[in-house]
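Q: Could you write out the predicted structure for this multi-component system? I'm mainly interested in how the pieces pack against one another.
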Amino acid sequence: MKSPFAYQPRPRPLQLASPGAAVAYLGAIVAVAFLYSNPLVLVAAGVAATLAGVLSGARGAVRVALKMGLALALLIVVVNALVVDRGETVVARLGEWPLFGRVDVTFEGIVAGASGGLRAAVAMVAAAVYSACVDPDRVLRVLRPLAGRSALTASLVSRLVPVAAADAARLRDAALLRGPAAAAVGKAPLARRLLAGSLDRAVDVAATLELRGYSLDAPPARNRHRPSRYDRRFYAAAAVLLAAALVGKALGADDFNTYPSVAIGLGATTLTFSALVALSGLAPLRRRPKRGRPPSVNGPKIPLYVGKSSRRPSSSEVARV
Amino acid sequence: MSELAIRRGAAPALAVRGLSYAYPQAAAPALEDTSFEVAPGEFVLLAGRSASGKSTLLKAACGLVPHFHGGEIEGGVRVADLDAIAAGPGELAAAVGYLAQDPETQVVSTTVAAEIELPLEMRGDAPADRARAVEEVALALAIPHLLDRTVDTLSGGELQRVALAAALVTRPRLILLDEPTSQLDPVAGDELIWLLRRLNEEWGVAVLLAEHRLERCLAAADRVIAMEAGHLSFDGPPPDFLAWARDHDPALETPAARLFSFAGIDPLPTGVRAARRTLDNCRGEGGTPSERLVLLGQQNLGRPPTPHPSKLSEEGVPPSLPPALRAKNLWVELDRGEDPRDVLKGVELTIHRGERVALMGRNGAGKSTLLRAAAGLHEPAAGKLSVESIALLTQNPGDYLVRERIGDELPGDGGMAALRIVGLEDKVDADPRDLSGGERQRLALAIALAGRMEGQELPGVVALDEPTRGMDHARKSELVGLIGDLAERGAAVVVATHDVEFASEFADRVVLLGDGVAIADGPMAEVLSGGWYFATEVARVLDLPGVVTPEQGAAVLREEGP
């Protein structure tokens, strides 16, 4: 089964943009998340990353990344609450714990953890959108003149990972299909077998690279420029976002304190900047071309499509003996 | 020699002189004193049994041997006037393209366009040249619509074409292909062979093609080279090769040639067209009564194949045999990371114990999915599926072998009983890696059978998914024997296969799947004589209902009637 984070070409602005433009745009969202601690701004950055993914057709990647990101955020909240005992509002006294010592859970510790967790979640969603929407071949081609061997290694790994995943799925199936009297296959023999198979695969792929001329010491090829009408939009969005982030920071949009007591600034600057960050998620919105209206015709309406399909039984009719 | 001189054909595309080669730590050399040439623009077919040295020879011609594999090499190999032993595969890449059996490991990029462009990028070609070369090779191979796709969304046939495009994009003088059709269905396999012929004729690319299914490509070849235990055993035109194979190695004969051999007709045909022409000539000369019978069959030419909707399970199987597998309106949905889609769409099928069933159809028609659903690996989305008990051997027998001693894979009495069924009870202490390909397949089958037998009674269904990939005729014959044995012991043997000739040898019934639906289901001879692609070579030559094997065809030709 294909990973939801795997790149999938789609005729959407983010996929059609050059890697530089896409990375600048998504990078700006992540930069905001790392520059700011105010939860409202962080939520806005999360909304922007989510919107960008959804508008680019990467719903699956966003959904999984949100689940993983929120789970990570929860973990950070719990760890921070247990480790940090600063703050005035104690919500639970948990006594003496081995290694931790005296554990007092404070409201301020929980909020600080939530802020850090939100930041991690935003970064994960943005990374998932990048992975699903930016062609790794084009990125590696940009990197190749800078670090040829590293780019090639990354390229090989990106190819071998799905091949190894397919091999693992096959081996799992074969293990399930073994007769009851055959020796059971534990995880260790299966992993050993997968490793041996992966090495064989790697040798085959390396042979292919040899045949493609990898060992030639040819001068690095210049990149083929593929024009995109969306580049300007993403560069502009990134520039506006970063400039606004710096100005907002100077004007106090990141007004947020956790210790000794929680104070979240919700002034006009913060609200305006948060709205701007959230709206930046609309940058990948596809503008549909205007169509001319057909001349009106007086007459009966004709259905555009009439189809018939073979009937598939409802799930209630499913039976397995 | 100048590039222009090479292009004009002054140098052979490939020249092999006294080539001997042994892999590192190998007991015997893979090639011994081999010499031959391939002229520019020539289409040469490399024939021979498994392990005869065909693949090694191809690897030597593209520089992988000895540069990548190591070992000891003697003699000389020149490709378009380049010394292949001195130059590495990278340097040879501009002069020779190589396509191996498994397309999965021949792609290294994420998208098709990037994959095709990679060799030109490695060579340092300018962006404009690369763009044009990619466009042209995509057009030549009819894959421009695939350029923006990711490689993991392609079918086996599409992936094979993409790998071929990447091998051809540098416009090499020679293309080497190692069983490129072994994983393709008959339609995609035929398309690939004729595509090669077209490239050979229009671009002047010399082709050296190693294949086991000679009937598929003999007609396209200018010349055949046969190998035996690392030696060249034959080198000549296809008709002479068939005469040689009849006398020296009948396993290499094509079905149409066997038909003519059995019927005593000369010359032996290189393909369906040549066979029909010979039979037409017999008619022109007056002809014998048997030839007039052939004539009757040939009147069917030009008519579309007759569908055979009969159900053997309802008509041909004795009622005493219980059903081992029954599917009623079976739907199976698969989700491969994109939109989920129905792979089986209301399959109706009943298979009884003792039947030998060939499950056929294009890549993606649903053959493997049906077997996997029967084995419980996929849940039906709708409908009913009942299976008495099943042992399924998937496409890669090696996946079942995880230990270093056969006795450790199959311990106890249950394991020994399974080993006895497949005839490996004497090899309990052997390492599975030391077994031959056929023995490994039988061992994997024993692992699937172990504990599913009651005493010596086999499970209701023994299913094999594409078991003949990369097999030569001798190993296929062994497998036919094993299938017959399993069926005689009472199991229903269901084999998903693309190999029409193999199906005609083992099956008594053929179920043809098309886009998730059983579109033909009937006695083997009836189904395999009623089409163009899913028909044996003999059936396509004679076009007589029910005549599919060389023996049947020869009997018809000799005895004036079926």
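A: Regarding packing and overall arrangement: Residues 13-145+227-282 of chain A form one domain.
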